[in-house]
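Narrative of activities, Objective 1.

The group set out to show that a structural description can be obtained from nothing but a protein's sequence at a throughput compatible with the screening campaign. Below is one input-output pair from the validation batch, recorded exactly as produced.
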Amino acid sequence: MSATEKPMYVFIADDHTVFRTALKVLLEQDRAFRVIGDCETGAEAITACADPDIDLLILDISLGDMAAQQVVKAILDFRPALPIVILTMHEDELYLRDLFQLQALNTV
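Output recorded for this entry:
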């Protein structure tokens, strides 16, 4: 990344504080990323993503208050071009099928 390029502004939504903090530290080691916020609930993620500065949402598939499918659908209603990366430990495609249909096509 050149000195004149803007970093990608990332928002992290994950209900595991230690993981969320570690991911933030890892991402910020690369100047291409700047974590501009984080939260632990789907409701907070939906509210936060109204911020037009957010370039990428990293979203845990299992938040305490709602499923990732609900969060993605709500966000894509008002930010249809926002890239969303879904974090999951599940290998079963059933967990991901609905998300792929919602166009949250990136999973880790």
